[in-house]
């Protein structure tokens, strides 16, 4: 059973400067909720209630968000605005939140390795908050994990000219939308990409990934890449890639962030 979800949230968010100079990119709001809250809600929807968050300098706002603000709640108690805190209070009451810091920015693989002290020796999920998904992506992946009991990455098709922005997989299709990975490359040039199946920010990882990450040498960009560690795991056993059902927005880019805002705004309007 997957009980913990890891959120790497120590990055600088340089594509959103100057907004992210003092505000964590994970706290940028799509409508009235910060990106990381959408991720926590997705994890809760999948039955996961233990959130492990990798933070860094200047990220205290994340901890404050998932905590009670007594002064604010006192000010709006009994008013027409009190209901606006219902969702976040529900998450605070339902979940436990633990934190540790990534002191040096050495890549996603390094961030996940830092999370070992919070995860322990059990399988776990990973959500990258700036990949905002509409749909129960993590729940879909959890059901697949229950069947195969191995690491799983979420994938989607991207234009061939954009493969240099993603980790890209190739493999043997073993059932509808499920591939057994035999190749995994970090940000390949379009002419070198093994496919156009790109990894997005949803993972389920088995705990042996930590030992593999310790062995993994820095790769592309001088960083410890999770794709390199997963490729080693695939060679030693099995890693699956799952073409999920739902819609994903790259909120690490301005274009994707604006697209997500418009999409969720229209979605909310349609419910009224």
Describe it.
It is built from ten helices and 13 strands. It is α/β, with parallel strands linked by helices and about 270 residues long. The protein has a single domain (about 5-270), classed as Spore Coat Polysaccharide Biosynthesis Protein SpsA, Chain A, CATH 3.90.550. The strands form three sheets. Strands 8-11-9-10-12 form a five-stranded mixed beta barrel. The radius of gyration is 18 Å and the shape is globular.
Care to give the gist of this entry?
The chain is α/β, with parallel strands linked by helices and 272 residues long. 34% of the residues lie in helices and 26% in strands. A hairpin with a 2-residue loop joins strand 2 and strand 3.
Secondary structure: elements and pairs:
Elements: E1 4-8, E2 29-30, E3 33-34, H1 35-45, E4 50-55, H2 60-65, H3 70-76, H4 86-94, E5 96-101, H5 108-114, H6 116-119, E6 124-127, E7 131-134, H7 137-148, E8 151-157, E9 167-175, E10 178-186, E11 197-205, H8 209-215, H9 226-236, E12 239-243, E13 247-250, H10 254-271
Helix pairs in contact: 5-8, 8-9
State the fourth-level CATH superfamily.
Spore Coat Polysaccharide Biosynthesis Protein SpsA, Chain A
C-alpha geometry = globular
What amount of the residues lies in strands?
Answer: 25-35%
Number of helices: 10
What fold name stands as the CATH topology? Spore Coat Polysaccharide Biosynthesis Protein SpsA, Chain A
**Strand runs, count:** 13
CATH level-1 class: Alpha Beta
Q: Which class best fits the helix and strand makeup?
A: alpha/beta
The description of the largest β-sheet is:
5 strands, mixed, barrel
Could you give the distance between the termini? 37 Å
